[in-house]
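Page 47, continued from p. 46.
Same chain as before, 174 aa.
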Amino acid sequence: MKDNQMHNDRIQPSELIETEILCGDIPDKNLLVQSLFPEADASDPRSVNYQRTLVRPVIRWGSLSLNILVMLLVSASVFYLARYFGAAYWVAVLITAIFTLSYCVIRLKRITLCTVRLYQHFAPDYIRNRCRFEPSCSEYMILAISQYGTFKGIRKGVLRLKRCNSHGGGHDWP
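Result:
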């Protein structure tokens, strides 16, 4: 009896054909979203109707290349000066590493801002449009670093990245 009842609960091939015909009448995505969420506000980042305008920053490749080249030349000069004054090879490497690390820490704010702008320039649209916050997470990082300084700004930006998902969102300023 139970086996016969299970057989009757199965979908018959004729029902599948009918289902396919019914599913073919679904409106396009925008009409479906508007009918399901009529109260959705286009200015709210949490809304399905929200359209983010992506800004791709202009990368000044000459300035970026010059900064990297200067750092490499100065580091090489420090290494060769240490070797010239009789330091052992490993001591010269250590002095150069300490100098390069110090240079990077001193310029950390600029390096971090440049890294975020490179992300904004090269990240695909589908990744950058996932953010449900306004301003977006990368813009928030830039604002937080500019407003609070390097270390506190990076901390606030990382905490914002942890909060960012498709279920939260809204307006959130640093």
